[in-house]
Every structure is written in C-alpha cells, then in structure tokens.
Flavonol synthase
Amino acid sequence: MEVERVQAIATLSRSVDTIPLEYIRSEKEQPAITTFQGSVLEVPAIDINESNETSLVESIKKASEEWGLFQVVNHGIPIEVISHLQRVGKEFFELPIEEKEEYAKPEGSKDVEGYGTKLQKEVEGKKGWVDHLFHRIWPPSAINYKFWPKNPTSYKEANEEYCKCLRGVAEKIFRCMSLGLGLEGPELMEAAGGDSLEYLLKINYYPPCPRPDLALGVVAHTDMSTLTILVPNEVPGLQVFRDGLWYDVKYIPNALIVHVGDQLEIMSNGKYKAVLHRTTVNKEKVRMSWPVFLEPPAEHVLGPHPKIVDDRNPAKYKTKKYGDYMYCKLNKLPQ
C-alpha cells in the first residue's frame, strides 16, 4: 500500500547505511557509478527581462535546441512569493502521515492528482526515494481543491499567488519559443492549448537517504508536458544526461529551471529537444522541488506545427490527443 511505502521511507531515512533492495538501482543507474565527477553543468542562464527581444529569443531558441533546459533569472517573481510557496509545501510534508493521507489519490483514479501517487511503472519493481503531491493550479475550471492541503492554512494563498506570477513568465517563454520557430508570438501557445493549458503542480519531497550512492529520487525521464517550470530548494539533486554522461546541474539561487517537454519537441518537429533528466538524493538534507507542468487538456490534439512542416521538412511525429500520448508513455507503449 502507498501508506506503507511512505512510512517505510520516513523510517528508513533514519536508518544507518542501509536501504532495502527495492530502492537500490542497477549499476547502470547508480549515481556513484554513472555521475560525471569533477564539475557541475552550467546550463544556460537566461535573463528573461532582457530588453532586446531579438537577443532573448535567440538565447531561448539556442538553449531549447542544444540543451532542452535553461535557468531563468531576473524573472520578476518576488523572492517572498517563492519562499512562501516553499515554506507551505515543506510544512505540509512535515505533517503526520495520517494527515497527509487525507489528500491521497483516490483508489482507481486515472488522474495523477493527490498525495503519494505513483506516476510511472517502474522496471523490475524498483522504487524512487521520494514522496509527492500533485494538484492543478490553473485554469480555475481544472482545479479540484480537495487535493489542496488545508494545513498549513496559508497553503492556498501561497499557491494562488505563485501561479498568478508564474503565468506571465510562462507566456513570455512560450512567445520567445514561438518566435524562435519562425511563428507569430501567440501561435505556439495556442497550438499547445491556449487558455485551456493546464498548470499541474507537483511537489517532490526527498527525505535524507542513508545510501544516496545507490538510490535515485526520480529515475531518468523526459517530461510529457509542453514546458516544465521548476522551483528547487537549495539542496542540489537535478542531473542531466549529456554526451553519454550524467551531470549535476549547478544551483542558481532564486532561478527558475525550465525543461523542454515532449509536446514542445513534437510541436517543433524535433527542433527543440525534450531534456532527459533524473534526481539524486542527499544523505543529510531534505531536497524538495516544485515543478509546474504546462499540459494540454487530455482531448487536445497535438502534432508538429503545420507551419513548420512541408515536403522538404516532413513531420517526424504523429498527431494525437494528449491523453492518448500520456497513456502510451505511462504504460511504456509505442507512440
């Protein structure tokens, strides 16, 4: 049961130098073996308040093509808004397990919303060293407040405040990515769902792990979303696969981390690259992150944007409903 899994992690995080076999990754995944030692990866850091739009578009285009990942600085979201989001999220995960379980994903639900949900099928029964909470924060029509914690009492206020600020940042990034493909500014976001685009928040909570050399928080994956915009805490853990190796990503205080997701790779017909990434855990400290996945509604149809495909540049990806794409990916079926 999910409760048993969460309780096990909480108990095991206090153990000394031992974790059960189901948390030990194979040698081809173990961080101690597969992480490049000696340097962290300085992914592009982009000042989104750059006054020269042509320069900003080029920076985001290049990062999306070559990295699939960049960090946004000078984004305009007040530090106190991000700190409030982090504080209430941390306070929720420090509650007793029984109180957190009140927000658990309902039995048999096909959606991801809820506490402690397990997203992907794992190979060979392995588990990630992580607990999490999913709920949508935008648009209002997609929000189900029963998955929003009532304790701490300012949880709702903090999330709404952050979402209000985040939407402006997301729209600016989409505009630049659209222009980078030779499209009009609004066209890429419209193709992704426009006003119906859903902002799905996930809070990842990684307790201290006695053997961080053997375990992973989240296994290697690309995000299904269009964009993912993430707030980390100060404990490093994000790794990116590049040139055949796993690299730690340098933490930049107050920056937002932006991932290109599968749907942007599809819509750009492969020009923008979805980034393969994973997360490691820490022996002494709690690591947390707050990714927001910008997802089309399940019935929304996506494919390579018709304005960037022709006889010389044929479509490299199928056009399909986002819900069908999700089903295939989560169940490891061919697309």
